Amino acid sequence: MNATPQSQTDVDLRRDALGQWVCRLGDAPEQVGVQVVRAFPLSAPEEALSIVGTDGHELLHISRLADQPPALQQALREALAEREFMPVIERIRSVSTFATPSTWLVDTNRGTTELVLKVEEDIRRLPGARRLLVTSAHGVVFEITDRNRLDRASRRLLERFL
Questions:
Q1: What is the pTM of this model?
Q2: Is the C-alpha dihedral spanning 83, 84, 85, 90 positive or negative?
Q3: Among residues 60, 34, 66, which one has the least CA distance to residue 47?
Q4: What is the Cα–Cα distance from 78 to 75, expressed in whole angstroms?
């Protein structure tokens, strides 16, 4: 079912009593268990969103998050935050070795943790050259939003891998 309401005000996205996301498009029946996904999570995180049904089909395409009513924006952001987990590395405390695999002790916006860097290619530069993604051996992706804003010791450790 690919329904598109007359306007974005015809969209109701809310959580039910069981904590599942429920979407109603216009007068259509409610869809329980929907997910909100980004088409371009890194390059355009505020654009090209989709509300997807349990069958994996798109129920609604949203061009720009900022163009939506405030209540819908809030619900969309909450649904996305639940789905996405990308801790931000704020400081690199230590690395076990400058060869890979290497165990890193880092401070993130979610607390202190250890990650294992399997190969140097697990550090990916994003457009702008300051932003990096670091993928751990367990598949968790960490972000360094601006490597120039790290403290001097962290930058030194990081430079050995770049």
A1: 0.61
A2: negative
A3: 66
A4: 5
